[in-house]
Input
Amino acid sequence: MDLLIYTADQCDPKRCTGRKMVRFGLARTTKRYNRLRGRLVLSPFSERALSPADRSEVGRGLAALDCSWAHAEEVFGTVRLKARALPFLVAANPVNFGKPFKLSTVEAFAAALVILGERPQAEEILAKFSWGHVFLELNQEPLAEYAAARDSREVVAIQAEYLSQDI
Ligand SMILES: C[S@@+](CC[C@H](N)C(=O)[O-])C[C@H]1O[C@@H](n2cnc3c(N)ncnc32)[C@H](O)[C@@H]1O
Output
């Protein structure tokens, strides 16, 4: 599946997972918002959760926005996109390890690929990061359940179970 990263040039280049993906030819990058049209954009601010039913909505591919978390809401707010949020999953990257929902760009793409039935590609992109396999291990159960869900509503119901255990 084609992966595109909109870059806002706000990330620390040494830690930026999106830049590393681009360096390894695993994603392409753009600075033009209009290139995001016709794609399914991964946005933590979307009210709709990604589900396997979105396979038909992917269009030209998936997109993520590489920006700092401090500015994310403002960057996402500037344009209307066909967007989906990822359900409850825990980050394994060194910056936000253990934090729910706050995934790095590569983790967000990997989670989306697993949910959409493209696990080999998820493993391929995570393999470039020493901690990449930990993301799939930490989230093995929820990812399997989300990938087996029928639609966004089922994904949200599964997520609710995990959120009630997390408190
Ligand atoms: C805010 S950037 C931060 C990137 C980070 N600095 C890095 O090096 O990977 C992470 C991007 O991944 C996607 N993402 C992360 N968590 C997400 C979630 N819970 N739901 C949907 N997309 C998410 C979004 O496209 C988001 O803009």
Summary: The helical segments are 17-23, 72-77, 105-115, 119-126, 132-138, 140-148, 152-166. The longest strand covers residues 3-7. The beta strands are 3-7, 28-30, 40-42, 62-66, 83-84. The chain has one domain: 3-166.
